[in-house]
Design goal:
Blueprint: H1 5-16, H2 20-28, H3 30-39, H4 45-61, H5 66-80, H6 85-113, E1 121-125, E2 128-133, H7 140-156, E3 161-166, H8 168-180, E4 184-185
Parallel strand pairs: 2-3, 3-4
Antiparallel strand pairs: 1-2
Length: about 200
């Protein structure tokens, strides 16, 4: 049996590792793991919960599996035994709260990235594009920044006209930004067919 509780904890976690990212997480989160190991047996409760939440966030940031995140505090308790079961349950909950919060943030960033240029644009003809304005309007500052980025990118792409579709607030924000850079809105004016002139 390993004498070093941190090494034993890492060994127990490595046995639960489902993929290479799980094994890589063990080294990358070592400072936070060390702090949790110091606080879990009898450290101040608030410090322990914060350290566990930090470890959970770090594990999510590094791509650890939910299975490893769910098991790591129990493995720490085994390595550091004896540890009060009530502290273990609260530490596990704190770690998972940190893990889930970070995972949700990653998903939010990924979903917002789907509305960034060039993914939100379809070229209709030279100089004319359609823009899907699906970015969430819940964050006014984020929406304004998105509109500025799209307007800047369309200017660099030499777009002369844009047709906007989607959320009204997002369309309004983008329309204002496009107006500032001189890009016309809506479909091109209809022209007579050559034989009707």
């Amino acid at each position: 049996m390993l004498a070093d509780p941190l090494a034993l904890w890492a060994k127990l976690d490595a046995e639960r590792a489902l993929h290479p990212a799980d094994r890589a997480v063990l080294d990358k989160t070592e400072p936070a793991r060390s702090l949790v190991a110091e606080l879990l047996p009898n450290g101040h409760a608030r410090d322990l919960w914060s350290a566990c939440a930090l470890l959970g966030r770090m594990m999510a940031d590094e791509g650890a599996s939910p299975s490893l995140a769910a098991a790591t505090i129990d493995n720490a308790a085994t390595a550091l035994a004896p540890v009060d079961a009530a502290r273990v349950a609260a530490a596990r909950a704190s770690l998972l709260e940190g893990y889930v919060a970070a995972a949700r943030e990653h998903e939010l960033h990924a979903s917002l990235a789907a509305w960034e240029y060039p993914r939100c644009v379809v070229t209709i003809e030279e100089g004319v594009v359609a823009v899907a304005c699906g970015r969430s309007a819940d964050d006014a500052d984020g929406l304004a920044a998105w509109a500025e980025r799209v307007a800047r990118a369309l200017t660099k792409a030499k777009v002369k006209r844009a047709i906007l579709a989607g959320d009204d607030r997002a369309k309004s924000e983008l329309a204002s930004a496009l107006e500032l850079v001189g890009i016309a809105l809506g479909p091109a004016p209809k022209r007579w067919l050559p034989w009707r002139r």
